[in-house]
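Data availability (excerpt). The following record was deposited with the supplementary files.
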Amino acid sequence: IIKSQNERYLFVWISAMVIFINLKFTGIAFTGLACLCLLGFSLFSKNQRLFKKVFLAEIIGAVVAIFFVGFSPYVENTFEKGHPFYPLGGREAKDITSSLVPIELTELKGFKRFAVSYFTLTNDGERIYPRLPFIPNTSLGQFPRTYGDARVSGEGLFFMEIFIIASLLLFKMLFVDKDRKRNFYLLVSISFLIIGVVIVPDNWWARYVPFLYLIPWTILVFSLWGKKKTCFLSQLLLFVMLLNSTTEIVKYVKPQIYSTQ
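Predicted structure:
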């Protein structure tokens, strides 16, 4: 959109807004952050005409998504239940997550619960096994993870390693490479992703913040900005992320194949 300034891409953006806003209630917040991000990029381009087009397109997308396609539940809930996000909000709100918190996370709050959830291991969604990064653990292969909705280590077995490598790569990009233009777009992008993670009350559960996995991917993509050769950290990050994804696919798909035979 920013580079080509083609109005057809704005139509695609509007369509994406309508889809994501109506996938889940949290879609409104995440779509709003994405819209602010695009507005920021268009403003940074110093093209007032483009900025006005993007702003108008996002207004149209929001109206269509909420008042037409999303009439039920957003408008309907507002009139019938007094809150557009019922049963998550309003006077008749229902707590649908507290009973699903793993026993060993119930006493933890805030960042502690978040960190323990993503940087430990579990084999049944309940019991938690701490581990150190980059240290071979023979028990890794023994965790079947056949349950469909992982509540601990939901971003994968090697997410701790991914986080550490991505952090080192980010440090290199900001303080060694010092590409100001690239770093600006990088920081804006990951800032909106981080804000999206922070504003979700139950961000310890991967199903509510699947875009958390986009943060290391974003760092990896920007590390390739204008580069003919990739650095070792970029290659290592890509390898571990592919290993993580492959491991998850095997651990989830294999039991499903056996269960359908």
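Summary of structural features: Residues 125 and 150 are 6 Å apart (CA to CA).
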